[in-house]
Amino acid sequence: MAHTAQKGKLIAVIGDEDTCTGFLLGGIGEINKKREANFLVVNKNTSVMEIEEHFREFIKRPDIAIILINQNVAEMIRHVIDNHTDPIPAVLEIPSKECPYDASKDSILRRAKGMFSAEDFR
C-alpha cells in the first residue's frame, strides 16, 4: 500500500525532560479531544511498562506520523521497536543531552543497511 503525506499528522516524542521541552517549545505539543498527549517525559521513575504502553498507543494513533524517541529510552523497549515494521508512523531515534547517538544501535539504520550493498554506493 502506498502512503502519502497528509495534512494534520503529528510528531510524537518519547524522551527525557530536556528533549520533550525543546520539541514542545518548538510547537509539536498537542492534547487531543480524549486528553491524550503526543509526548511522554521519561525520568528515573518512569517504568519500562509505561514507556512500552505509550509507544504502542502512539503507533496505533492515526494522527501520528513520526515518533521521535531518545536512543537510550529506545534501548529499554528495543524488542517493541524492532517489532514495529510499518512505515507510518516512522520511528526515529535521536540523541539526548547525556547519551550521544550510536548508529550501531539504531534499528531503522540497521534495516536500511540491509537493503543496500557496498556496490550501490560506488
UniProtKB/TrEMBL annotation:
Give the matching InterPro entries.
Answer: ATPase_V1-cplx_f_g_su, ATPase_V1-cplx_fsu_euk, ATPase_V1_fsu_sf
Residue intervals passing through the bilayer: none
Q: Single GO molecular-function term? A: proton-transporting ATPase activity, rotational mechanism
Q: In UniProt terms, what function does this protein have?
A: Subunit of the V1 complex of vacuolar(H+)-ATPase (V-ATPase), a multisubunit enzyme composed of a peripheral complex (V1) that hydrolyzes ATP and a membrane integral complex (V0) that translocates protons. V-ATPase is responsible for acidifying and maintaining the pH of intracellular compartments.
Quote the NCBIfam families the UniProt record gives.
V_ATP_synt_F
On whether Transport is a keyword of this UniProt record, the answer is yes
Q: Which UniProt keywords apply?
A: Hydrogen ion transport, Ion transport, Transport
Subunit details: V-ATPase is a heteromultimeric enzyme made up of two complexes: the ATP-hydrolytic V1 complex and the proton translocation V0 complex.
Protein name according to UniProt: V-type proton ATPase subunit F
* Entry's family note: Belongs to the V-ATPase F subunit family.
User: Which GO CC annotations does the UniProt entry carry?
Assistant: proton-transporting V-type ATPase, V1 domain
